[in-house]
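Q: Is it fine to ask for two folds in a single conversation?
A: Yes, each is treated on its own. Send the first.
Q: Here.
A: Result:
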Amino acid sequence: KAISDYAFESQPNVTKVYIPSSVVSVGDGVFINCSSLTSVEFESGSGVTSIGYEMFSGCAKLANVKLPEDLDEIPEKAFFNCKSLLSINAPKAKSIGISAFQGCSSLKTADFSKQTTFIGQYSFSDCTSLESVYIPKTATLGDNAFSNCSKLSSVTLEEGIETLPYNFFSKCKSLSSIVLPSTLTTIDSYCFNESG
C-alpha cells in the first residue's frame, strides 16, 4: 500500500495522522501545508525507509512525530518550517536532505545515525532552539547546515572530519567553545561568523 504524492496537501482539518505498518511507501508532499496537523505516528514495525520530499513542509503546528524505526533518509525540505516540532528521533537515518529541518524553531534535539553520510545545505538552519549536535566523520557536509542555531552550545566533531564548510556554524551565538578534530585541514569562509 502507498500514499500518493500531495494526497492531503493543504487540508485544514487534518489534525492527527496514524500511518499503519501496511503502508510501505509514502510520496512527496503528502501533508504539505496542513496547517492544523499536530501529531504523526508511523506504526511500530513500519517498513517505510524513506519519506517523501516536502512531506510535512509548512506544517506549522506539527509538534510530535514518531518516525519509522528503519527510516534511513530524511529528504529535502521534509520538515521545512515545522515551527512547533520539538524533537526528532531517526537513529538509522544516514542522509539529512537540503533544508530538511530549516526553520524548525522549536526543535531542541535531533537524533540521527552516527554513520550519517550526508548533512545537506541549510539542513538545520534557523533551528533556534537546537542545543547540541554530533557531526560524524562519515558525513559530507553542506554549507549553512547549522547557521543561525542561536542556542546551539554543544558540538561534537568526530575525529576524521577534514573540512567545515562555508557558514556552517554562522550566527550560533551560544557556541562559546568547540574542540576541533586534529584531522581538520580546512575551515571555510564565514564558518563561525557571528558565533560565540
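Q: Second one now.
A: Result:
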Amino acid sequence: IKNPKLRNIHLFGSKKPMTMLLLLIVPTLAFAQSDRHFIRTGNKLYRNQNYPKAEVEYRKAMSQNGSNAHAVYNLGNALMMQQKDSAAIVQLENAGKMEANKTRKAMAYHNIGTICQRHQLYGDAIKAYEEALRNNPNDNETRYNLALCKRLNKNNKEQQKQQQQQQQQKEQQKEQSTRCCVLGESSPMNLPASHP
C-alpha cells in the first residue's frame, strides 16, 4: 500500500490492512447488484407483457433484498396486470409504506385506487386516491379519478337507498297481503253468531 496512513490499518489485530475491509465490502456490493439485476430482468419482461415471469423476477429480487421498495412496487404492478388484485393491493400498500420518494409513493396509492375502482369499491378507491394526492398534489389523473369515484359513490349510495326502499315496500305489501288472508279466514261471517 502506497499511502503511509493506510499501511498502519490493522483489522482484528492482523497485519493485512485492506484485505479484510475488501472481504467485507465486496459481498455487500454483490448482494446489491443481484436484486437490481432481477428487477431489470423483471422490467424487461414486464415491458414485453410477460407478467407471470416478471412476477417471478421481482419475487427473486425481494428474496435478495426485502426492503427494496422498487421490487415490491413492481411486483404489485405485475400482479395487478395479471388481475391478482388482492395480492397486488398488499404489495402496493407495502411499497407505499416503504417508499421514501413521495412521487413513487403516490404512484403506489394511485394503483391501489385503480384496483378498487375496477371492483366498484369506491370508498376504498377514494381513500387511496386521497393518499396519492397527499403525496403528489400535481397528479391530474389521480384528481380526475378521485372526482369520478366520488360521483360514482354518491350515485351508488342513492341507488342502494332506492333498492332498500323498494325492498321495504315489497315486504310491507307482503305483510299486508298476509294480514288480509288471515283476516279473511276469521271474518265476522265465519264466526259463530252470538245469541242475545
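Q: Anything structural to flag on that second result?
A: Two points. The chain has eight helices and no strands. Residues 176 and 182 are 10 Å apart (CA to CA).
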